Amino acid sequence: MAKKAVNPAPKQDQKSLEQALSKSEQFFENNKKTIFGCLIAIIVIIAGSMLYVTKVAQPRQEKAAEAIFPGETYFINGDYSTALNGDAYGFEGFEELSKQYKSTKAGKLAGLYAGLCYAQLDSMEVAQKYLEKFSGKDQMVAPAALGALGHCYATAGEYNKAIAAFEKAAKKADNGLLSPYYYMQAGLIYEAIDKPAQAVKIYKLIKAQYPESEEGIEADKFIARLTSK
User: How far apart are CA 122 and CA 81, in angstroms?
Assistant: First the structure.
């Protein structure tokens, strides 16, 4: 994550802000595989359903669905480069297929996969472009895609956009697994850009709405750290 604050902090607060940002960076780095692992699992499950509907209920999109189907195996197995760029056996890759079938649901799904592949390959700027184009209504996939976009913004130092994406993702998810995580990310970034009051508000929200989550259990520590200053 680039250390370029949106609102420059006074010199006396610089050390605490750097520490807050470091915590956010470290949290993401330590949990990156888990975060995207959960995201991948969610999307693969939903994608399977989408492809079934596409192939059975909407025959006109069958070609698009069949074209992207092989990429799921690569994606699930962590071969993100092949999933993105294709193989020597006829699979053209999510990037190319998202362009060929952009007007279909399967094509839009390929674009989401492409964005996630780029994120896994640490090409966050390109991932951001794909994720910004995705618009889904599913209660699991849509917030997960927004959460991934939030990480892209945070990595680029676009903290206000990151906060907005994380808060939107949390509201869309509306569950005890994803929502507290996304709210926590928003809170950490609020700290990093010297907005402790907003951070405390977020942590209190997590504690009140998701008390049994890992973030809810830890919320008091974050609140105490900020309110004791």
Answer: 11
Token pair 């994406």 is at which residue? 165
Alpha-carbon distances, residue 24 vs 17, 27, 181 (angstroms): 11, 5, 12
Q: How many CB atoms lie within 10 A of CB 15?
A: 10
Contact (Cβ atoms closer than 8 angstroms) between residue 148 and residue 127: yes
pTM above 0.85, yes or no: no
Cβ–Cβ < 8 Å for 98, 117:
no
Three-state SS for 40-100 is HHHHHHHHHHHHHHHHHCCHHHHHHHHHHHHHHHHHHCCCHHHHHHCCCCCCCCHHHHHHH
Structure tokens at 90: 């006829």
What are 73's two structure tokens? 């195996």
| Residue 145 DSSP SS3 | helix
Q: What is the DSSP string of 39-57?
A: HHHHHHHHHHHHHHHHHHT
The structure tokens 């993401």 sit at 28
Mean pLDDT of successive 10-residue stretches along the chain, which has 229 residues: 38 45 49 51 53 49 81 89 95 94 85 90 91 82 87 90 95 91 92 92 97 94 87
Task: List the Cα angle 33/131/3 in 5-degree steps.
Answer: 65
Q: CA 223, CA 175: separation in Å to the nearest integer? A: 22
State pLDDT tens for residues 17-49. 445 445 545 544 544 444 455 555 555 545 554
pLDDT in the model for residue 3: 37
Residues 6+ apart with CB under 8 A from 63: 101
